[in-house]
Design a protein that fits this description.
Largest sheet: 2 strands, antiparallel
Strand content: 5-15%
Structural class: alpha+beta
Oligomer: single chain
Shape: globular
């Protein structure tokens, strides 16, 4: 099973959850099927979204090393900056997967249960994150 998430890095919350798809469906195809419209913003995406460029959005994706060459120092610095932001996204995803039902094999055959389980896991993560940061400030 697979879902796409849109994460607010500043608040460390899940802002959008796509529908649940079979694991063989490509990430970019899920984005095309969902047709989410972004406000003008910056979008940091991993390499699974190669070629995905929504309107009015600045997209940032790590640059690959050219075959037989090395990346420039500028490209390496940009990749480091992108990676430092992407790690925050991965932390949020791991917070969602703290509910083991999301990452383990889900054997329930009722079609809407997979979506509901992921929604609940994202909601629990957002609840934990808002309480955590409310206590800090």
């Amino acid at each position: 099973m697979k879902n796409n998430l849109i994460i607010d890095v500043e608040e460390r919350l899940v802002q959008y959850l796509s529908g649940t798809y079979a694991g063989r469906v490509h990430d970019k195809r899920i984005c095309d099927d969902e047709a989410y419209t972004f406000p003008p913003c910056g979008l940091f995406q991993d390499t699974g979204f190669q070629g995905y460029k929504p309107a009015h959005v600045d997209t940032y994706q790590p640059k690959k090393k050219p075959k037989g060459q090395e990346l420039t120092a500028e490209d390496k610095a940009e990749n480091t900056m992108i990676s430092s932001i992407r790690i925050l996204v991965e932390h949020v995803i791991s917070g969602v997967k703290r509910c083991h039902i999301v990452k383990d094999v889900f054997r329930n055959t009722i079609s809407t249960f997979a979506d509901q389980v992921m929604e609940i896991a994202c909601g629990l993560h957002n609840f934990r994150a808002t309480l955590r940061y409310a206590l800090i400030t």
